[in-house]
């Protein structure tokens, strides 16, 4: 098989040169949320009506000759502001239209594209001032964030590898493969202070180094995309919106540990993410970025995408590996750890999607730049799925150390009441970390969100779910909701997890239905402690947290 030598600089320069003829770019959000609201129809209407008006329209930049007045129509992945979808960006004007329907397209083309006028009714209205905001810079939901890893999500076309390369994509992988040793790669990640974004917060560089020093002909890199927390969609958004960043992170991880094969384990419920990550891998393979002797080196690496059956417990790394091997996804005791004896008994490194998407930025720009964000013990940023009783819901990214007050009252636009009004005094609590997490109350509003600060009060970052609750929320009902979830998702291997979660749920039922006594609380506490201590994996050990 002939080795393909890809010239990243030539692809980048060609893309930039061709993009010079583009007068306007229309970006229609094609994340799962916007598609569910009809963004596909919006895209098709733009395509047909722009042609009908006689404008020079292109859907990609693989053309030969065009005028200097081209309209470039593309899709993007999730832009984060899901409740306002379908979203339409118009660049370089910096316009963001929200809640766009198929019937709105004619007005957008006639007013904005042809007459340079805003369609005010489609602009976002601030929930406090009710003033219209032209675009991202004026909308607090975006302006108050620090979109570091998410910067390209929602802007680039996830199906266009050339655009990713034009934005310096795969340059970090090339640097790692051609200019760095495996130890230098691991040292750079360790120096950055990057901690796993899947919930545990274990130092990524240390995990890689533990795998690197193992002696084996085969080593594996696994991308854990089995995101199962209720309301969490961070990993899905990365795979839908910027799949090449995940692939590039895996390539760098493979270089660091001496790996030669990768697996991307994605939930079956994420068909769009599966489709886009598969296409990204195929395009990279055709270009010679994945495969044998990458960039003319002696380094070879390829990936396989596997769809999980949707079991929450398969997010646990030993259960995930068992599922890949064709076994029932059930946790196994550790040690040995995956770094020592992982997939098929070989040294394996497992990172979640967000962690891997962060890797190329660190290698490209340096660990010192990464450490400028966040704080000493938790450098960088974290994405959160902000939901519940808050004006602005969606996917956000903030530096570690940001407070709940900043997230809920500024980025989130404030707490909403049952009547739909904004009243920050109505804040009661926020559930952080999904079923594995805990509740933070008013006294924690100014607590910096990072791994260590939350750990000290018995909470955790988790995968990044934030559910805001107002003072009309029943906390026992919330505990019941999460306990129902973990009880259903228990694999049944541990008696304490299998039976303990069932009994905790029954006790919560007693409370909500008026059968409980004060002894019920004592029994709940004792049972929760037993389940936490006696369970084998993270599901059982953290199941009592909401209680």
Provide an overview of this structure:
- Helix content is 39%, strand content 15%.
- It is an alpha/beta fold.
- The strands form four sheets. Strands 2-3-1-4-5 form a five-stranded mixed beta sheet, with helices on one face.
- The mean pLDDT is 91.
Task: Explain the layout of strands and helices.
Blueprint lengths: L7 H12 L2 E8 L2 H5 L2 H14 L3 E3 L11 E7 L11 E4 L3 E3 L7 H11 L8 E2 L6 E2 L6 H4 L17 H6 L4 H9 L2 H11 L11 H9 L7 E6 L8 H8 L1 H15 L3 E7 L3 H17 L14 E7 L8 H8 L23 E5 H13 L1 H4 L10 E8 L5 E6 L4 H8 L15 E6 L5 E4 L9 H6 L8 E6 L4 H15 L5 H18 L5 H17 L3 H5 L5
Helix pairs in contact: 7-11, 7-14, 8-9, 8-11, 10-11, 10-12, 11-14, 18-19, 19-20
Mean pLDDT: 91
Spatial separation of the terminal alpha carbons:
58 Å
The unreliable regions are none
Question: Strand sequence of the main sheet, in spatial order?
Answer: 2-3-1-4-5
Largest sheet features: 5 strands, mixed
Shape: globular
Structural class category? alpha/beta
Indicate the percent of residues in helices: 25-40%
Beta strands, count: 16
Give the number of helices.
Answer: 21
User: Which strand-content bin applies to the residues?
Assistant: 15-25%
* Rg from alpha-carbon coordinates: 24 Å
